[in-house]
Design goal:
The protein has 167 residues and is mostly helical. It has seven helices and no strands.
């Protein structure tokens, strides 16, 4: 896994540098001709991929950093896929790269026995299940999955912060 994190980190940094150049060209084209936002989305996505690549390289010899990389790569993929059909068509290719990296690292995180046990305790906790049900109902009322996603991510962050304070 050390090799994967090093190679994916280096490739992510190179891809992000290329994406930044493409994003600026796309923003100029969209400003002059088309009108859109795929260049700006590409710039945000490139920044997230660059950050994930750096974290991946720095944390390759340690256990930590995988969850941060998963979150950064996943956000980059979501931003890239959300601009489907824009003037910056290569963004879909880079979003697929970010998705692959996120999936590989997520599998690594979930196969780690310590992490697997912690996630099982977290996701089968009654307060988490009740909160998910309430967030799903709220999302159904407003026609969005956003409340459920925000609740799940926020719950994990609160648990992690509370766990750090207890130590």
């Amino acid at each position: 896994m050390k090799t994967w994190k090093l190679v994916s980190g280096i490739l992510s940094i190179v891809i992000a540098a290329y994406m930044i150049f493409q994003s600026f060209v796309s923003m100029a084209y969209e400003a002059l001709v088309v009108g859109g936002y795929s260049g700006v989305a590409g710039l945000f996505s490139a920044g997230l991929i660059l950050a994930a690549g750096i974290v991946s390289i720095v944390s390759r010899k340690k256990e930590g950093g995988d969850v941060a990389c998963v979150i950064l790569f996943a956000l980059a993929a979501v931003i890239g896929f959300s601009t489907f059909g824009g003037a910056y068509g290569d963004l879909i290719v880079w979003s697929v790269w970010a998705s692959v990296c996120a999936i590989v690292l997520l599998i690594r995180v979930l196969l780690n026995p310590c992490t697997k046990a912690a996630f099982m305790r977290l996701y089968f906790h009654p307060s988490f299940i009740a909160g998910c049900i309430c967030a799903a109902i709220l999302g159904a009322v407003f026609g969005s999955l956003l409340p459920l996603v925000v609740y799940c991510v926020g719950y994990i962050i609160v648990i992690l912060i509370r766990g750090k304070k207890d130590e």
